[in-house]
Amino acid sequence: MAESSRETRRKEDMASFAKYGLNPADLRDAAKWDELLREEDWENNPVYGLQDFELVEATECRYVHKVTRCLYADLWNEHDRPRIGYQIHCRTDIAWWDCPAWNSKIRFEQPKTLMQGDDNCLFIQYLPGDE
Predict the structure, then answer these.
(1) Alpha carbon distance 35, 29 (integer Å)
(2) Which of 15, 26, 52, 82 allows an S-S link to 69, with CB 3.0 to 4.6 Å?
(3) Are 127 and 108 in contact (CB under 8 A)?
(4) pLDDT beyond 90 at 17
(5) 131: pLDDT strictly greater than 50
């Protein structure tokens, strides 16, 4: 699904970056954009209110944020099924965050997840060679 909608998402994302006067090549702007979308499009955001986000780092070449609370993780852990929750909710993150439609040069790592017993989910986006 992520791949089949890439060109449409690219056009929409680029228009959104332009609307806010942000540069998709600068990960500081990507961090701002991500926050703006969470705040402004809350009615259409499927995780609105279900997760708590915290900015860790935003530089021109690196954007790191973490999720410190996730209702999905709470529910799957409560039912002793975090491995299933990880497959459904966490493993799919790479499809959206690695080489995103708005800047295919950006890479993604997720070394920690609540579903795997960590104290947060860590999302790292970076430009290779500049991390």
Answers:
(1) 10
(2) 52
(3) no
(4) yes
(5) no
Ramachandran sector of residue 10 (left: φ over 0; alpha: ψ -120 to 50; beta: rest): alpha
By three-state DSSP, how is residue 52 classified?
strand
d(CA 66, CA 56): 7
Answer whether residue 97 shows pLDDT above 70: yes
Lookup result for tokens 């993604």: 108
Which tens digit of pLDDT belongs to each residue from 103-118? 999 999 999 999 999 9
Find the Cα–Cα–Cα–Cα dihedral 30, 32, 33, 34, rounded to 10°.
90
Question: Do the Cβ atoms of 81 and 42 come closer than 8 Å?
Answer: no
Instruction: Identify residue 106 by its one-letter amino acid code.
Output: I
56: three-class secondary structure by DSSP: strand
Q: Which helix H or strand E contains 34, and what residues bound it? A: helix 27-40
Q: Which of 79, 74, 76, 112 is nearest to 93 (CA)?
A: 112
Contact 117, 73 (CB under 8 A): no
